[in-house]
From TrEMBL:
<dbReference type="GO" id="GO:0008453">
    <property type="term" value="F:alanine-glyoxylate transaminase activity"/>
</dbReference>
<dbReference type="InterPro" id="IPR015421">
    <property type="entry name" value="PyrdxlP-dep_Trfase_major"/>
</dbReference>
<dbReference type="GO" id="GO:0019265">
    <property type="term" value="P:glycine biosynthetic process, by transamination of glyoxylate"/>
</dbReference>
<dbReference type="GO" id="GO:0004760">
    <property type="term" value="F:L-serine-pyruvate transaminase activity"/>
</dbReference>
<feature type="region of interest" description="Disordered">
    <location>
        <begin position="1"/>
        <end position="26"/>
    </location>
</feature>
<keyword id="KW-0663">Pyridoxal phosphate</keyword>
<protein>
    <recommendedName>
        <fullName>Aminotransferase class V domain-containing protein</fullName>
    </recommendedName>
</protein>
<dbReference type="InterPro" id="IPR015424">
    <property type="entry name" value="PyrdxlP-dep_Trfase"/>
</dbReference>
<dbReference type="GO" id="GO:0005777">
    <property type="term" value="C:peroxisome"/>
</dbReference>
Amino acid sequence: MSDDPSTDSGQAIGELNVPSRVLLGPGPSNVHPRVYRAMMAPVIGYLDPQFLQLLDDTQRPLRALFRTKNDMTIAISGTGTAGMEAAVYNVVEPGD
């Protein structure tokens, strides 16, 4: 018997069917079906011309929202911690 479950023909793992519940705790939380559908869409690479166009299209409204003309205004794909670090990094100067 192999240690790799994907090559073990003796056992199959079936589909996980979790009943629909209202989750009221701090997490995990319920996910709207529209979000699940979006997550099933094909992934676009960060060097794909279509992604670069999407990034440009995102920058314009962000500049308007934050009332800036800074060309380096970008959306950050990351955790909340990554966003907070980016915010602090852009506000704090060396020696502060």
